Predict the structure.
Amino acid sequence: DGGITQSPKYLFRKEGQNVTLSCEQNLNHDAMYWYRQDPGQGLRLIYYSQIVNDFQKGDIAEGYSVSREKKESFPLTVTSAQKNPTAFYLCASSEGQGAYEQYFGPGTRLTVT
Amino acid sequence: GESVGLHLPTLSVQEGDNSIINCAYSNSASDYFIWYKQESGKGPQFIIDIRSNMDKRQGQRVTVLLNKTVKHLSLQIAATQPGDSAVYFCAENWDNYQLIWGAGTKLIIKP
């Protein structure tokens, strides 16, 4: 089956620790995205990547970092600099950037205490 | 700045009735629109999309209408079922930039 996987589904961390969220896709998509979703809110773009070894900041990149060393993988690190990291994180991919359907993973719910 | 907005945060519909979810957009240059459904605790799922050269597009039990004159987008769900309960997001795109997401409308189905 083709799709996007995110792991783990639930993640708990202590304040001050960095944490890395995994995102893998086997759809052969060029573009990948990370979104943050807070309760009852919409999606906010953190980072996106149009191609391997290239990525761009989204609207709320502060306190986050990414890498895109392989086409299939786009991990997100939530650093200790992110002031309010508790949220639902969604990874997506699309054939290209812009006017294309984005395919979403199941999400990772991160709780930092 | 430009944004996509929704008229109603919550919509309650009787099971079996038709649902209409509305979305306003402010950028007349937007040329691609897309609707997603998000169930609680899950990632959004694609429902239907439409390009600006069309006024209407139909899928299975869903229809998207685009009124460029008043910059309005709607999603119609026919014969609403309990499984349609979710939050519905519209998003727009222009100039091949990123999708710009609306805040979402929660659809509640009354038995």
